[in-house]
Amino acid sequence: MKNYRQIFREKILPRLQKPTRYLGNEINAVIKEDKPLQIKVALAFPDLYEIGMSHLGLKILYHLINENDDWSAERVFMPAPDLEAILQEENFPLCSLETVTPLSLFDLVGFTLQYELSYATVLQMLSLGGIPLTAEERNEGDPLVVGGGPCAFNPEPLVDFFDFFILGDAEELLPQVLEILQKHKALPRKEKLLRLAAVKGVYVPAFYEAQYGKQGEYLGTVAKTEAVPKTVQRAVVANLDQAFYPIDFIVPYGSIVHDRLVLEIFRGCTRGCRFCQAGIIYRPVRERKPETLRELALKMVRATGYEEIALSSLSSGDYSAIDQLVRGLNKDLAREGVSLSLPSLRLDSFATGLAEQVQRVRKSGLTFAPEAGTQRLRDVINKNITEEDLLIAVKDAFANGWTAVKLYFMMGLPTETDEDLLGIADLAKKVVSAYKEVGGKGKPRVTVSVSIFVPKPHTPFQWFGQITEEEILRRQSVLKKALRIPGVQFQYHDAQTSILEAALARGGRELAPVIKRAAELGCRLDGWEEHFSYSAWQQAFGEVGLELAAAAQKQFAADEPLPWDHLDTGVSKRYLWREYQKALASEATEDCRQGCLGCGMALLLKEEEEKGVCSNASLD
Question: What is the pLDDT of residues 133-154, one digit of tens each?
Fold first, then answer.
């Protein structure tokens, strides 16, 4: 067999701009090349090393797989343009970092599907790795290709290219998958996939077909055999406190986007923001106990040498014992010379005492997300915070020494008007005034960041179409003029990347040839401004007979089947429609910690089926 490692390190690595991306021998990397292995897994992240190595899910799965002596997990990322060019020039395959093994030689290649703009990159990695692009083209000697992550909850645009998908929490599901593959390694691919399809949370698209009417209208996706479930239910880790969590995180040699330890304190959210897909697909709330977290934190610090640790969740201020946890962690970490950060604070859970504890080392900027400029629109999206919550929070922060605040908003939300846009500028002015009211010296630094709303599957806004590019640009112009305020900086997102994201997010199987053609046209790393080509994507859509903008703007009717209806998050479609109607009427819904709202999530958890309510209380 060709010595890929020697060739790569002697002939290719010295020619690269950032070779530390590809060394694979970082502190705590796991290399098992001298051990007999039953199953070899390549964990593929369709972006650059700096992005992929900042992703918590990849780290959890990497160490989880490598805990088993019969299995190995190695990493592979999309190569930067310099390495990609060399690989093509030298006819050298894309390989894993740890043992420089071509992707085609693994048993399983698993892609993290975090972002729709990574779809063409997935195809580029398969091609570079020597794996046939479509599942239909692969033979018995090729790896199985699996996808997981948020985008797996509507993987229909990608089904041609994947053998199966994992829906939901992978800590318990992935070991089941690997056990089946190990036990039935000698079976044909189809037989392996039939066994996998019987596992809760595994979706094998080859066993399902999309049906269409006489006019070409989509009628739904149905199972082709009784051997697979009609709908695929998401897998849920019921007890997060007992779930696997790594302590020996890999420590990169070069810088990455989030170069710090991450401690996941709980999973899920009860707030019910209607635009938020994560708030649906990670239900119900499951917490780790404070003592578990403190023990994990100390072990992580001592195993890595990091000097900063961040608490991670969708809304860390909602953790039931947040004050107790932060005070305890600060006490523990102070002895280690490690600082603590808490990046995800809600306005109505912000407390100066807590913030002071978290930011004892330095007064860095605080970030809050009002999301909308008026109370009416905040009620539409069910963002249950008020202008008063914002002003109290920023006044407390300014009074205690902070000088920088970042405010996150969205534009293009359902029912949004210019009055709502101008409300963003009005809030920004009041934040600047709040700094002066508490005696702040000089000028504050208030950053207003406004992203473009992208409707996502499995949310109350999944039926709503995105606004047009012309309207996006007009609304951005309105904001540019309104936000010419001393002390305020305006940041906004690119319209065209958001349009593509919307088109891919709610598409069906008709988009597979679009993605394939886009990859052929050179699309890759589309989340990076310098690599993104909107014209190439427009061409790909056009050649297939579709229109990119129309796909993004599509409105779905109430009784219309959706491409992802056969994939079950645990939250019912009826509940989501009810929330959509309440949104259009500007009616808010209370936090489900105040009482079960009947979303359907309880049915996914056996122990909760008997109670008929969600498990949203703390573990204490």
Answer: 999 999 999 999 999 999 999 9
The answer to whether 454 and 553 have CB atoms below 8 angstroms apart is no
Per residue in 6-20, pLDDT tens? 999 999 999 999 999
* Phi, psi dihedral angles at 299 (to 5 degrees): -65, -40
* CA atoms of 270 and 320, how far apart (whole Å): 12
Same domain, 80 and 143: yes
In 138-276, alpha helices (H)? 170-183, 189-197
Entry pTM: 0.94
| Cα–Cα distance for residue pair 460/238, rounded to 1 Å | 25
User: Each residue of 246-265: b (16+ CB within 10 Å) or e?
Assistant: bbbbbbbeeebebebbbbbb
Q: What is the DSSP letter of 529?
A: T
How far is residue 73's CA from residue 109's CA, in Å, rounded to a whole number?
10
Domain with 429 in it:
363-493
- Pairwise CA distance, residues 399 & 392, whole Å: 10
Model confidence over 263-312: pLDDT tens digits?
Answer: 999 999 988 999 999 999 999 999 999 999 999 999 999 999 999 999 99
Cβ(487)–Cβ(444) below 8 Å: yes
- If asked whether residues 445 and 322 sit together in one domain, one would say no
Same domain, 275 and 204: no
